[in-house]
Amino acid sequence: MKAIGFRQGGSLDREDALLDLEVPKPVPGPRDLLVRVRAVSVNPVDTKVRAGAKPSGEPMILGYDAAGVVEAAGSDVTLFAPGDEVFYAGTIKRPGTNAELHAVDERIVGRKPRSLDFAEAAALPLTGLTAWELLFDRLRVPRGGGEGQAILIVNGAGGVGSMLVQLARQLTGLRVIATASRSETIAWATQMGAHDVIDHRKPLNEELARIGVKAVNFVASLAASDRHLAIYPRIIAPQGSLAVIDDVKAFDIAGLRQKAITVAWEGVFVRSIYETPDMIEQHHILGEIARLIDEGMLHGTMTRDLGEMNAATLKEAHGLVESGAMVGKLVLRGISAG
């Protein structure tokens, strides 16, 4: 089958950074679905793995977000059948979705929202799962709770931020404060439902004071966490919580001790990597996200469609993600079988 991958990691300016390949068709395991991929999205994790990976032997195929149609099911599959339309975020420990066909454990797969096409649906799984787990599992905000409290979402116009702003606004009583710095990102975060938008290029304490907020109860630090760490003890309320998703080289949280601030790390692949007893929870979360999309409570975050996936268009997508200037999510259509 056709796929896009690489034989040597490194920077995107390499001629062989991403290649059109022919690889064997995946063989689904007992709990796997074999999915014909109809669309994918690209996330920062794709670019980071590509830059640092050292494949041994076989070429490495990336890709996590996908939407497609179940073509075959393993012997122990109970949740889906051939012909079902699905979407999911995959796992970092298996070959990825940048291919015609992909094998994925049914426990991390959801039924595609009926109201979205495949490209729109492919933009949602990884960011939706990350935002959901961060809000309800890591920050432990009760669904429907949070009245009289506030959450600060740093980088509110990115992929995860776009979903987190919506979830916090629609499913909690929190005051939702997002950060953004450009006119288009400010407009996007507002469109997603933020009550307030402040500028993360300026001191966050001063920006919060500008809107009459002395401290927030929750911070979702989605970018530049090491740069903002020094200010977090000043802007998080006593017994508040901080959740982080980005890569940091040094992160000394001793300054948070005096206020007994809880620190948590969100990792969307943890359940699938370790096959935790609650691994199927991602199936349920995706089902709930699909329901909320179809009911109009949540909205898709796709902002750019780069057309059919091949080495050239996927390389363009990686470059856009690496630029750090993306608003929402970009997608590519599945590889043509022809």
What does the model show?
Keywords: Acetylation, Cytoplasm, Metal-binding, NADP, Oxidoreductase, RNA-binding, Zinc. This is Zinc-type alcohol dehydrogenase-like protein. With 338 residues, this protein is of the alpha/beta class. The strands form three sheets. Strands 3, 5, 6, 7, 8, 15 and 16 form a seven-stranded mixed β-sheet that branches. 29% of the residues lie in helices and 25% in strands. It has two domains: 2-124 and 270-333, Quinone Oxidoreductase, Chain A, domain 1, CATH 3.90.180; 127-265, NAD(P)-binding Rossmann-like Domain (Rossmann fold).
The radius of gyration is 20 Å
What string gives the helices and strands in order? EEEHEEEEEHHEHEHEHEHHEEHHEHE
Which range best describes the helical content: under 10%, 10-25%, 25-40%, 40-55%, 55-70% or over 70%?
A: 25-40%
Describe the global form.
globular
InterPro entries: ADH-like_C, ADH-like_N, ADH_Zn_typ-1, ER, GroES-like_sf, NAD(P)-bd_dom_sf, Quin_OxRdtase/zeta-crystal_CS, Zinc-ADH_QOR/CCCR
Protein name: Zinc-type alcohol dehydrogenase-like protein
Subunit structure: Homotetramer.
Keywords: Acetylation, Cytoplasm, Metal-binding, NADP, Oxidoreductase, RNA-binding, Zinc
